[in-house]
Write a structure and sequence with these properties.
The complex is a heterotrimer of chains A (237), B (328) and C (345). Chain B is built from 14 helices and two strands. With 328 residues, chain B is mostly helical. Chain B has a single domain, classed as ABC transporter involved in vitamin B12 uptake, BtuC (Orthogonal Bundle), CATH 1.10.3470. Chain B starts with a helix and ends in a 10-residue tail after the last helix. Chain C starts with a helix and ends with a helix. Classes of the chains: A alpha/beta (237), B mainly alpha (328), C mainly alpha (345). Chains in contact: A-B, B-C. The structure holds adenosine-5'-diphosphate and magnesium ion. Adenosine-5'-diphosphate (ADP) binds next to strand 2 and helix 1 of chain A.
Chain lengths: 237, 328, 345
Amino acid sequence: MAASEAILEVRDIHTFIGQFHILEGVNVNLPRGSIGVLLGRNGAGKTTTLRTIMGITPPRSGEIRFEGQRLNGMRSFGVARLGIGYVPEHRAIFKGLTVRENLHIAERRSGDFARKADLIFDLFPDLKRLVHLPGGNLSGGQQQMLAIARALVPDNRLLLIDEPSEGLAPVIIEQLMHAIRRLSEQTTVLLVEQNFRMASQLADRYTIIDEGRSAVAGDMRDLVKDQALIQRYLGVA
Amino acid sequence: MRPNILVSVALLVAVVVFGYFLSPDLGSFGITLMSGLFQGMLLFLVASGLSIIFGLMDVLNFAQGAYFMVGAYVSYSVHHSPDVMAAIPDPNIRFFLSVISAVAVGAVLGGLLERFLLRPLYARPIFQIVLTFGVAIVMTEAVEFIWSTTPYSWTVLFSLRDQSFQLFGQSFGVYRLVVIGIGFALIILIGLLLQRTRIGIIIRAGVEDREMVEALGINVRMVFTLVFTIGCAVASFGGAIAAPFLGASAGLANLFLLSAIAVVVLGGMGSYAGTAMGSLLLGLALAVMQVFAGKPQIGLPVLASMTPMMLMILVLLVRPGGLFGKGR
Amino acid sequence: MLRRTLASNWFYVVLMIALIILPHAIGWVSGDSPFGVRGRPVGQSIYWQGILIEVFVLAVLAMSYNLVFGFTGVISFGHALFFGIGGYILGVVLEYTDLTGEVGLLIGIGLTLIISAVLGLVIGMVTLRLRGVYFAMFTLAVAEMFYIFFSRLALTRAEDGFALTELPVWIDPTRSRLTFYYIALALLAATFLFIRRLIFSPTGAVLLAVRENEERARTIGFDTLRFKLLAITLAGMIASLAGLVQVILNKKVGPEVLNVSNTIDPLLMTIIGGAGTFTGPVIGAAGLHLGDRLLRDLVIEVGGASIDIGANWALILGIVFILVVLVFPYGIVGTFRRWRTKQAK
Ligand SMILES: Nc1ncnc2c1ncn2[C@@H]1O[C@H](COP(=O)(O)OP(=O)(O)O)[C@@H](O)[C@H]1O
Ligand SMILES: [Mg+2]
């Protein structure tokens, strides 16, 4: 682990929403170029972890570093501008904006979209013929593709993707997995994924979050073999 | 056509037809129409800011009417100030200056309100509402402090304001036509701005999901300040161009706030198309009601001033989301 | 039991006794009888009784506002509606029907309570399902509509309003001011106790939960809409009683009782005094109204310019209000309490 440089280090973060203590010590360590996955039951705090990294729900204590730079106290637009793309759960695309507008709005410098158009339409060919449609008219899978595509418009070096497979058909999931694997050749990815099969096939590293704490972390290949661990924290066989 | 557009057009036609049957002749029908469009445009100038600001930042700016009022006062004062009169004797040119001054004052006051009073309160939305209400009080009282409580009526004549032409045996004011023209132009201009420009896309996206816009790397608060500034400037512009007819008085604040709220509820909170349509509808409805309620057989002039409130209550009962809203 | 109650509430008990004695004390000091002179309402004591009745009315109005805003977290900009409607109903019953005297008074009060409750329920049912701001807008609009309506209604003499001439003698503030003073004081005390009881009851706990996080209160399984309805209905009824006392004191009903200032006043008093506290609205009402009365004739010189405090009282209040919202959102009482807790730590 020490061999590869960590692009993201999350150390013992505590996050409150209102008066509720949601994260009570989460650690994540992600080497550059890898795919990491956050696992854990519903309500464990995976989404909150991503939102805390993004500065949407800032941590009260602990430390977050991206490429060595501290993110604590930065507002989320500043975090994003450092080169982090966020794909929230439930496919939060802008439903009233056309596909093209959804992609355009993500530009950080003008021309970003033009430069990335080939890559994006190569990964998600469906989107190409939909560019003039409002995002709300897209199917669930197409919306998810658009949400990921949107994060690819600027030059992000880290992508945070929250439950991309949620509610999608197996064929679509296959397509998404393929796309994520390909884009991980250029960026580091931190996934949240309930679909264990998908997670185990994609990810190099895992962190299990349980009741707001990171419980176990390690190499995905080890986890796949450890049925007891999976059973204990994820309740899947 | 989408059903909401159909319903709006049907309502519009109904109001106009009702107005037609109330009128004894084409000339007075024309006067009613023009008065309705004129009022509708003024309403739009207050309501558009109210609606976009609400949609984007969840702040219902109860001070929006007060900006209209300030615009009227500034425009009145600049136009009637002896110093400015000496410097710019031509009343038409001076009127341009008056309007520009009003817009500038509205913009500055609006920017200050967002930046220094509202920004600290985004975490406490309930206090934001209460604060804008307080700001409306302070602005009204400050206006009365500066200009006294006596309403002003516009006394300086100028050709732009006083020219008229004859049609169907009635005389129509050119100025009202100009205001209607400007209003339509602004409806289209702001619409284009929202549809075509990057800032417009950001605003529309922000209305849907502010947090996500920010997570894309956009400093939403700067957009807030900008939108608030423009919204208040437009309301102030409305007051400035209304002043030659309505004069300047503290009562304008409340009057236009309530009507603009009715427009926004009618059109659907946060919907730009709804606001434009709602302004037209309410403006025309007001003009028609003014004729209707003034008829000797009816003899209830109070009905006309209650129109915005009655309309709003009706909409909230029947379709709380308004014509272009999403149900609620 | 009684001793414990007295011990923990000594402040209120002392204040209450002081307010009961006050008219007599002022009478004793100034030499003017607290009962007036030969049935005519003159003298220092009578004058101060009038001012204090106004304070009590505003305090009751502010407490009712606080029940909605401070304890339930619902913003209303139409409280003047309830305040004013009470006055109009009593006035119409006494002056426009054959009912007069005690019977008219009782029926007027009963009708006031019923109609304000119905109004509160209806307004609430229409808007409380929607986002909070709809309630604020709707109440503002409805109140304004009633204001305009009664300002133009020929029956109730439009802007001039009409005088109350058929009040029973014992409550008539020009003939029996002291009795009326005690009635107003009783209303104040009753409102205070009622709201405290309510807030400390299980129902009150739900109201507070709604204020803190309505979503959560609903998830726990409370029908939050019903509790909000209850709060605004009760608040409307209390406000209408305050309005009743006000018009009896003035012996006149006019559209000014429906004016938006009767919404602004309790709002300012509640927030400046301390929203969500029991004494805050009372302190706010007393402070603002007495301040208004005492500073009415004051003119201060600032760098050559003279500022007429009385004439610009509303402007000054507005600015104070904005500062309080920004800097001391817990108001006088809330800020003091926080400061004391910090000291104690
Ligand atoms: N806005 C909120 N208010 C209160 N609790 C919240 C809020 N958002 C999330 N939570 C709580 O935080 C916990 C973690 O949520 P989340 O991070 O969404 O879990 P996950 O993504 O692992 O399913 C959950 O128990 C959830 O109920
Ligand atoms: Mg989640």
